[in-house]
UniProtKB/TrEMBL annotation:
InterPro entries: Ald_DH/histidinol_DH (IPR016161), Ald_DH_C (IPR016163), Ald_DH_CS_GLU (IPR029510), Ald_DH_N (IPR016162), Aldehyde_DH_dom (IPR015590)
A molecular-function term among this protein's GO annotations: aldehyde dehydrogenase (NAD+) activity
One Pfam family of this chain: Aldedh
Superkingdom as given in the UniProt entry: Bacteria
Protein name according to UniProt: Aldehyde dehydrogenase (NAD+)
Organism: Bhargavaea ullalensis
EC number assigned by the record: 1.2.1.3
Amino acid sequence: MKKIQMLIGGRWVGGEGDEWLPVHDPSDGTQIAEIINGTDAHVDEAVRAAEAAFESEEWRAWKPHERGNLLIELARHIRENAEHFAELECRDVGKPLTQARADAEAAARYFEFYGGAADKAMGDTIPIEDGLLNATVLEPAGVTAHIVPWNYPLQIIARSVGAAIATGNSVVVKSAEDTPMTAHALTEWFANSGLPAGIFNHVTGLGSGAGAALSAHPNINHVTFTGSVPTGIAVMQAAAKNVVPVTLELGGKSPNIVFADADEEKALDGVVRAIIQNAGQTCSAGSRLLVEERYKEEFLGKLKERFDALEVGRGMDDKDIGPILNKRQFDGIMRRIDEAKKQGKLIAGGEEVKVDGADGGHYIAPTIIDGLDHSCDVAQEEIFGPVLSVFTFRTPQEAIDLANSTDYGLVAGVWTKDIDVAHTLAARIKAGQVFINNYGAGGGIQMPFGGYKKSGIGREKGFIALRNYVQVKNIAVKFGV
Ligand code: NAD
């Protein structure tokens, strides 16, 4: 049984006197590790250590390219141990091994990308008048908090921590209580990386304890939170009391919009993958299918064949769909499916799947529901499971209206060969990313990612995310002889 300690100020913290929480493998419910239920005092210690490290001469002396090289070294470490990272993520989150391998590669890409960007984040010189040199300098924000959800811990830590360290900040990560394993594997690497003690800290525990304490800590200079809308609101409220900026990456109810002229094979592949990835437990899951009315019967018939052929199984058995995280999540999804069955028509799935030798796991057959009213809860709210609801439109404008008719705006997919239609939709849909004739573009480390409306505030990924972690200082120099 792995006992996961926290890393605070370069020291491994946690022992007999602490409360320990179990961590389970979603595939069969067996306990795989224990974490410490971090307290307010642990969080305070971590933030103070991060602050001291950030203010140290030692850290100030690190040149941007040296920070970058360290991150690139971490990318190399992840690639060299990709199978280890993938297996940890697979056992911890339950996702099929192939998807966990893709997560390990994405994490390596984040550290590599931000490693390369570390010495390329530059200010401007701005013309004002003769005898005045005006320049902006990008300074690190200071102590940055990173609160991580359970569904993609490895990738999500990499994307924000990579950008924060590249720009010279110190970091306190609060991993998700259900899935701390890869966070810990990264922490082990950071502990021996040669970074000054306290630049990277990892605290564990419940959201209501360690998470809340971190987001409310007055010595934090920026909070990056990825998770659900209600928690995002709580984090923003806590940070607001200290006038601390937040980057919020929240949920979604993303549409895949299929026109009758779409490349059918590509659209079918895209729609299936967008909803089954990580058993639908994905912020950017394509959980609504909007299909042109005259094409619906044909497309839905073929989609049902695809869904019926999908295999469900343990993460390590690497089928198409793995388990749901735990009983609580499972019950929530099944409740939504039961509601949907009463209000609409079940096309595929809709039931629990029993997997041989995995009695403690909770599995759901990939599900398609048709005939719902678009205003009902199932159509409007994030279900966070392998559940796709289907709606139809007759005109591009109807498709736009449907796409925009939820509180979310994270991602949208548009499938058509008509360039006018594709671009009109891309321009009118309120979502942070619009994919035309693809969905997700393989993760797209370089592409800004984030939400309109309740899907969040700010952007991660790409160069733009470096701006989350800097202060822009303007320096004006008057000169003349
Ligand atoms: P969650 O909001 O329950 O928890 C996220 C993190 O916040 C966890 O570490 C948790 O311990 C912590 N937390 C809980 N209560 C807290 C509080 N009061 N103060 C501070 N921290 C607290 O979310 P989850 O169930 O872990 O993740 C699923 C959600 O995350 C879904 O809504 C999903 O769409 C979203 N998500 C978004 C993205 C994105 O990039 N937009 C990516 C992955 C997941």
